Amino acid sequence: MSIVPANPKPSTQRTPDSNGFFGNYGGIFVPPDLEAPLKEIQAAYEILSRSHDFIEELRRIRKHFQGRPTPTYHAARLSKKLGSSQIYLKREDLNHTGAHKLNHCMGEGLLARYMGKKKLIAETGAGQHGVALATAAAYFGLECDIYMGEVDIAKQAPNVARMEILGARVIPATHGLKTLKEAVDSALMAYVQDPVDQIYCIGSVVGPHPFPMLVRDFQHIVGIEAREQILEMTGNLPDIVTACVGGGSNAMGMFAGFLDDPVELHGVEPNGKGSKLGEHSATMTYGKEGIIHGFRCYLLQEENGEPGPVHSIASGLDYPGVGPEHCHLKDTERVKYLTASDDDAVRAFYILSREEGIIPALESAHAVSHAMRLARENPDHPRTILVNLSGRGDKDMDYMIEHYGTGADYQL
Question: Which of 123, 269, 355, 356 is catalytic?
Answer without folding.
Answer: 123
